[in-house]
Amino acid sequence: MAGVNKAILIGNLGKDPELRFTPSGQPVATFSLATNRKWKDKNGQAQEMTDWHNIVVFGRQAEVCKEYLKKGRLVYLEGRIQNRTYEDKDGVKKYRSEIIVTQMTMLGKAAAPAEEIEESVEAELETPQQTQDDDLPF
Q1: Sign (positive/negative) of CA torsion 70, 74, 78, 83?
Q2: pLDDT 10s digits, 37-68
């Protein structure tokens, strides 16, 4: 049986995406994402904690991230968790967990170009769909 490795996150960008290219020319965007948790402790006091995630996006989606996403922007991400090791410039072994994104959806308020996209999508969603009773399968 195959395993499942799926991450679903909704959070805010911690910094603007950085765009680089692999040696073969494929675009790669990286950025951090903050997710918040809220709860009440045993004394009833409100508590909040922020978790930070390392995000990696490939291909055309990476270019879209660079163009439309900015620090603080709310996004929905789906992908897989990948752990890797590497040595830093001093030869010290480091460990890093990343979310390799397969789907990105912009949420909330956006910069001008993305606002136009959201407005057109919202307009499509608000337009009532005309259906004929004859078209219904029941």
Answers
A1: positive
A2: 999 999 999 999 999 999 999 999 999 999 99
Q: 85-93: which pairs have CB atoms within 8 A and are 24 or more residues apart? A: none
pTM: 0.73
Whether 66 and 29 have beta carbons less than 8 Å apart is answered as yes
Closest Cα partner for 9 from 84, 103, 82, 72?
Answer: 103
Contact in structure between 101 and 77 (CB atoms under 8 Å): yes
Q: Which CATH class is domain 7-127?
A: mainly beta
Please list, in sequence order, all residues whose beta carbon lies within 8 angstroms of the beta carbon of residue 43, skipping any fewer than 6 positions away: none
CA 105 to chain CA centroid, Å, is: 7
Amino acid identity of residue 41, one-letter, is: D
Q: What's the rounded Cα separation, in Å, for the pair 38 and 40?
A: 7
